[in-house]
Amino acid sequence: MTTSTERIAVPPLDSAVVRLQHGEQTWAALSLRDRLDLLTALSEATRAHAQEWVDVACRIKKLPADSPLVGEEWISGPYAMLSSIGALSASLTAILEGRSPLDGFGQSRAPGDRLAVRVLPHNIFDRLLLNGFSAEVWTMPGVSPAELRDTAGLAQRRPADTDGVGVVLGAGNIFSIAPLDTLYELFAHNRVVLLKLNPITDPLLPVFEKVFARFIELGLVEIVTGGVDVGHAAVTHPGIGHIHITGSVKSHDAIVFGSGVDGLARRHRGEVLLDKPITSELGGVSPTIVVPGKWSARDLDYQAEHIVTQKLHNNGYNCVASQVLVLSSDWAQKDAFLAALRTAFAKAPDRAPYYPGSDDRCAKAVTDHPGAERIADRVLLDGLVADDIAFDEEYFGPVLAVTYQPGEGREFLDNAVEFANRRLSGTLGANIVIHPRTERGLGTGFTDAIAALRYGTIAINAWTGVGYLTARATWGAFPGHTIDDAQSGIGVVHNGVLLDHTERTVVHGPFRPFPRSVLCGEFTMSPRPPWFVTNRTAATTGRRLAAFAGAPGWRKLPGIFLSALRG
What we know:
Blueprint: H1 11-29, H2 32-48, H3 50-61, H4 70-96, E1 107-110, E2 114-120, H5 124-129, E3 134-139, H6 145-151, E4 165-169, H7 177-189, E5 192-196, H8 205-211, H9 213-217, E6 221-224, H10 228-236, E7 242-246, H11 249-257, H12 260-269, E8 278-281, E9 286-290, H13 297-312, E10 322-328, H14 334-347, H15 358-368, E11 373-375, E12 378-384, E13 399-405, H16 409-423, E14 429-433, H17 436-442, H18 444-452, E15 457-460, H19 465-469, E16 474-476, E17 489-490, E18 492-494, E19 502-508, H20 516-519, H21 538-550, H22 557-566
Parallel strand pairs: 4-5, 4-7, 5-6, 7-8, 9-10, 9-14, 10-13, 12-13, 14-15, 15-19
Antiparallel strand pairs: 1-2, 2-3, 3-19, 8-17, 11-12, 16-18
Helix pairs in contact: 2-4, 3-4, 4-7, 4-21, 11-12, 13-14, 16-18, 21-22
């Protein structure tokens, strides 16, 4: 059996690393203006090949070309990529002009001696297109405004100080992850990148080669494909100085400790084989906490649809898919809400289980829980208690569990936060659904509960996936994990403002969609979001949003609004 440090030679990989080693010198010599020009070329190439990107993605995921679900691929693919390019370009422009990337971003105090940087909305277009949504990046406790400002820009403050060659082990579920991780290595850490694609995404190789063509020509990026043997050769290559992986904690531990029984034994002994630093995003068991309140029937239906989206977007193959729904055992409307949830679960669009092992994981969830309900091709587990395996094991598929905590108001919220922190595996993302009236009644107690919740992204009346799509927000696990207990990972990505000393992203969204929001006094203008699995015009809206992200302009807004309102 090969250990993590025993190298297998792969000649094409050796050649790629040599080109990157030369490319690092090129990268060091490029000015900020040169790097901005590269980002412009990257944006143009992404726009030019966006349709091809989405077409290939749909073939991989077996989505019919006329399905509204194609919108998922536009929004989580080219839109996410183009938004991030725009955010990075703005940060580099600020540095080039002698300003801080933080200039123009509002700051406030958050609980526990933290700073909160408002990254959404950032401009008039954000306010129009995502009306009612907001996002803040919270710092670690004790960070001063001067310290935050002085470090903003990360490695781009000293562009000539490069940091070698890194390997990015790409994910196989969301197809912007690998390109965005590559960008973050380049611009946040000044590392040139060997991108190893997940085999699921191998058909996208020609697209990514076209998108990154200028970077590849200069020796800044190399893209390779292959199986576990190529991945192993990459992480053990002497020319590779850093590893970043998006995947499972099992894959992470195989890199750090080795695979199989021997690797497990080394992990228990704390015997690390890996001889280079590693960062990671590894998923976990994500909760959605529903704070009890007095809801209308339409509120129940809409939030049931919302939670089904949190679970079934990309058929549940998301690192931040909601897996455990936390309800109050004392909520008078819990039975009505569960009925609405079952209806929404059943009505969600059918889709092919494209991700390997999906059917086996669903079958295991049923085997693990004799009372499991099969709803279409999905699994609902109601009434989980104590040490249920669903609290520890990420099913990574269309499996949703329901558990209960006692109390109402602050008592329930404190119980739910303590349960999520103590009992659920991972710290990537947590969702909270709460009626605005209930939130107002909790006062500062609600913000204190958010501060106590140890997750890298927390979404209130929104899905944490919005945090992923917010280019200026940070994305990653809550800080503090180590290579011998990685849970949801180490480090962050995205972070278009290039902030240091960050702890989490906090997202807020509207409790109701427009126009019902206005009729109920919320005064937000966002209709049903295009990432909802039930959105009828998601494909059109997603395509138009991607076009806007690549080249914002007022003339593009009416078409986006009209499509969104019909969704």
